[in-house]
Amino acid sequence: MIDEKVVSEVELPGIPVFKKGKVRNVFDLGDKLLIVATDRISAFDFVLPSLIPYKGKVLTQLSKFWFDYTALICPNHMISTEISDFPEELQPQAEILEKRSMLVKKARVIPVECVVRGYLSGSGWKEYQETGKVCGIKLPKGLQESSRLEEPIFTPSTKAEVGHDENITFKEMEKITGEELAEKIRKISLELYQKAALYAISKGIIIADTKFEFGLDESGNLILVDELFTPDSSRFWPLATYAPGKPQPSLDKQFVRDYLISTGWDRKTPPPPALPEDIIEQTAKRYLEIYHLLTGKNDLP
């Protein structure tokens, strides 16, 4: 059994909460924010009653790795993940914040999930089967589940505070953000995906798809926010076992989704079922494995 203290909730005395998400708690530090990733896990828009050891640390440290790696393509909101760089009032909380927190710039978040797909899976596969398209983009006939696409495609969705995100066309995105900004986001999203996908392949990992969030900083510049190429926001498949025509083994949150589907839970009625110990342990191992494979670091067990 993995021996790691799990963190379900984080409170910082005297520091106001800016926002509480399904996984992250965001604290307001005036001109900056502190994002703290807990070990909560969500699926099908529910926060599960089970916690995943190391999950918050993996999400934070893997995002840090990718923010550094992609900074020349697009600047991001990250200031530091080092506790020593945090304001003095946070120092007494160093133990709980260690490796799972990120000091970031404030930004006006753009209300669109920016999804890039290099392979046909998930909701994209479902939509393709029904219409031959994904988010209004017509794809060749005869593709199979998990097929590699000739070129990665940009498929935005709404960013829902409650309920499910909904796939939208690029034209619909332009109405939300304006044409110029939408085009800039699409171009950068595809560049980010292609750079990361090439790197991941060299480590034996396929990034099948991923999602980005963008914001505008105080000067109106476009920056990446939230997380980047994590097992919560991406599908990671081992290259060695890749075979189109079926679902792929994964090193991401899909493992938990697959378990929940196997329980017969309707995915609509709360509460969601708890995860058995072996599923919790296997999920934690997958998160740690993808972190080690992609970063080459062994600073997490």
Task: Give keywords.
301 residues, alpha+beta, Phosphorylase Kinase, domain 1, D-amino Acid Aminotransferase, Chain A, domain 1, 2 domains, seven-stranded antiparallel sheet, 7 helices
Provide a short characterization of the protein structure.
With 301 residues, this protein is an alpha+beta fold. It has 7 helices and 16 strands.
Could you explain how this protein is built, in words?
Strand 10 and strand 11 (137-138) form a beta hairpin. This protein has 7 helices and 16 strands. The mean pLDDT is 96. It has helices spanning 55-69, 94-97, 122-131, 170-177, 179-202, 254-262, 277-295; strands spanning 17-20, 24-28, 32-37, 40-43, 46-51, 78-80, 101-105, 108-109, 112-119, 133-134, 137-138, 148-154, 157-158, 205-216, 222-225, 234-238. The radius of gyration is 19 Å and the shape is globular. The strands form 4 sheets. Strands 8, 9, 12, 13, 14, 15 and 16 form a 7-stranded antiparallel sheet that branches. A 5-stranded antiparallel sheet has the order 1-2-3-7-6. The protein has a two-stranded antiparallel ribbon with strand order 4-5. Helices cover 30% and strands 26% of the residues. The two termini are 13 Å apart. The longest helix is centred in the middle third of the chain and has 24 residues, at 179-202. It folds into 2 domains: 17-106, Phosphorylase Kinase, domain 1 (2-Layer Sandwich), CATH 3.30.200.20; 109-258, 2-Layer Sandwich (D-amino Acid Aminotransferase, Chain A, domain 1), CATH 3.30.470.20. With 301 residues, it is α+β, with helices and mostly antiparallel strands.
